[in-house]
Amino acid sequence: MAGDPESAFGGVLICNATIDKATAEAINEIFFEVMIAPAFDEDALEILKSKKNRILLKNKQSAELPKQMFRSLLNGVLVQGTDEGNFTEWKEMGGRDCTAEEKADLEFANLVCKHLKSNAIALIKNKQLVGKGCGQTSRIDSLRQAVEKAKQFNFDLNGAVMASDAFFPFNDCVKLGHEAGISAFIQPGGSIRDKDSIEYCVENKLAMVITGMRHFKH
Question: What is the pLDDT of residue 3?
Fold first, then answer.
């Protein structure tokens, strides 16, 4: 919720772990319509049931994901395979190797990024989403959106990492990210100008990982 409290207001909250009393007290401070979790502790339920018209749901074991996704278009349908991966390779291509903390954040950032609508950018720090940009017509616009979102909620981007769902066609994204405090990047690579972003990272001692896997969510 702290990643974007405005969007959380009046929304649906989903958790992958049992909701305990401390968690219930924290999320009870904001207005939300629906809470979904595998289980709720009894004292947590007492807190969450205190507000009328709130819907609390227990989710069953997740069903197997379909192999294809469909989007309706004018006079047709777009068929896209379900993205079931995170990365196919891990190539350290920057000015230094990732630290253990950066690697953990980059893996998480890449996973978050694939669930955002392309063009997508995810900014992560300490395994928390602190800024996101998605659905923009250019990658640099998604990054600007992500940085502004982080600033809006007073997140410190120094030492944060960035994931991109597709390659950087120019080095403008790594430049802007560096200026904002980003220390490590993860992207699929594949641009004819990959070297521009790589060279910038080498010159500025920034970590960059090439994964070989794009994440286009349309």
Answer: 62
| 163/106 Cα distance (integer angstroms) | 7
194 CB-near residues (< 8 Å, 6+ apart)? 167, 168, 210
Cβ atoms of residues 65 and 84 within 8 Å: yes
107 closest CA partner among 133, 88, 87: 87
CB-based contact 202:170 (threshold 8 Å): no
- Rounded-to-integer distance, Cα 213 and Cα 188, Å: 5
176 membership: H or E segment, kind and range: helix 172-180
What is the rounded distance in angstroms from the CA atom of residue 185 to the CA atom of residue 43?
A: 42
Amino acid at 85: G
Q: Where are the domains of the chain?
A: 5-58, 91-210
Superfamily of domain 91-210: AICAR transformylase, duplication domain (3.40.140.20)
Q: Which residues of the chain have pLDDT under 50?
A: none
Determine the Cα–Cα distance for residues 138 and 188; give it in Å rounded to an integer: 16
pLDDT at 7: 66
User: Can you tell me the distance from the alpha carbon of 147 to that of 48, in angstroms, rounded to the nearest whole number?
Assistant: 33
Tell me: domain 5-58, CATH 3.40.140.20, correct? yes
Which residue, chain included where needed, has tokens 């490590």? 184
